[in-house]
Amino acid sequence: MTTQTTASTTAATPTANASTGLIGIPPHIGRALATGGSVLTVVSTFLAWTWTAEFPGDLTFYGYPGGLQVLVLIGGALTTLFGLASHGVKGLGWLTPAGADAALKYAALGTFATAWYTILAIGFQLGGLVNLEPGGYVVAVATLIALLGALALPFERPDPDPFDPDDTGWEQFKHRTGHNMAVLRAAFASGSPRPVRALPSSVEILIIVGVLALALVVFTYGIGTEYDELFVGFLITAGFGFAALNRSGLIAHASQITARHTNITVCGAFIAAACFPFTQTDDQYATLGVYILIFATVALGLNIVVGLAGLLDLGYVAFLGVGAYAAALVSGSPSSPFGVHFPFWAAVLVGALASLVFGVLIGAPTLRLRGDYLAIVTLGFGEIFRIAANNTDGTSGPDITNGSNGIASIPDLKILGFDLGVQHDIAGFTIGRFANYFFLMLIITAVVVLVFRRSGDSRIGRAWVAIREDETAALAMGINGFRVKLIAFAVGATLAGLAGTVQAHVTYTVTPEQYLFAGTTPPNSAFLLAAVVLGGMGTIAGPLLGAALLFLIPNKLQFLGDYQLLAFGLALVLLMRFRPEGLIPNRRRQLEFHEEADAPTVLSKTGA
Fold it and tell me: Transmembrane stretches, by residue range (predicted)?
């Protein structure tokens, strides 16, 4: 008996590994179209896009871009620069150390998305595209031309995998879809950036200052967007703009330069953050700033537990609540049953020590558990804390927390005679209440960052990483796993309690409902864990960025109403699908998720 075999066949392709574009336009014509279309896009932003000022931003002026036109202008200018760099214009080689084509595609796509979003929003709000002025039609055509030209740029197409002709139609469809997705990824892929040459230290420090100043401008603009359409446009422009800069290799070069001057970069980042209140005319956005810092500080504390030690804690927000309640009870509030008023330094110690004690009490009997079992126990602790705070109202239990009414009328802090609850004039700038607390939280965040850096580079930090990577192997090497995990739990709880002491005074009131496992507004345990995972576990900048995004974006997306969490959850799913290592991952985790990435020559103790 013989068995007949059929050789696998490969989908027919014109030429294997052919360097062609996604669109059948000659590359030189596509390059010219992309550059010319981006120049025309810049020109169109100086024209009127609509005849009425009813659309937010007032896009009726000639010669003066406003609102969403400014974002399209920035995108068009960036696309123009990448287009000129792709033509080999002298003096622009530094702009594209990893190649210009992929960066040009992302910049053109982002400009197209922002412009067409604006055009469609005008038509939807004003009752049709008839309300457009010539500038609106010009920008729509110009961005489309630039995008088509960019998509015509050549790239190395991957060879299709062979498939069995006996496969079902569904399996062949999956095969073709997978190959098409691989082609699409290859179209937007870039090469490895060339190493940045050593520059004089003064020049590199100036570059770091420029990067931090740009970050401050972008953050200030994003947090200060006055209407919903502008914030959505900002997200589109910022997202695609960052992707374009990343594909060009500039982000990699900036990372290499900042890595050479880590201490200067960290200090510069805090100085840039301290400049934020001076860019505001009132306390409106300083309010968001101080809440972001509270959220970010707690997320960084959780990063020690989850990112370094690898312990999944689903009730971490309870430690924030313990610190807040402890500080509120000794704050002199009339709702406190103790009737004492400690100075700030004593209240901070009380809040941090209370969280430390609870961290040890909860961790000691439970940290012998691993994985899902530990997560369930910590989730239970978070719920027990909230229920206990509700029941200690003098009726269901002892009178400590005032039940669901919480501790109200918490007075503002006074530090060395400086009242944080009133306005102060500094160098001609008026600093309001929330700006005062912003500076205080900035100092506390600096302390938390220092603790994270020093502990991560210490012997105990290396033990945390060993436990995270393989607890069984770490125990076999002589590491006391229980003691190491308990220290991580205690340190993380202490840092959360430290932030809670300030939160109690910022919010005036502490109630049990502020410390849920999940809710529509942070901080809660689910959002804290998402901030760590989204930003990048085991890093410093990752949780800070993740916390800022997770607090700012839901605050700005309130116009979505009931669909807010749906859109937010969908964005998280997409991010975890395409960048599971987080926005700012350490190198080790990046290699775990992307095996094709180049291996680093040197890994730090925490893999960063």
Answer: 32-52, 64-85, 106-130, 136-155, 203-224, 230-250, 262-279, 285-307, 314-332, 344-364, 371-389, 434-452, 486-506, 526-553, 560-578
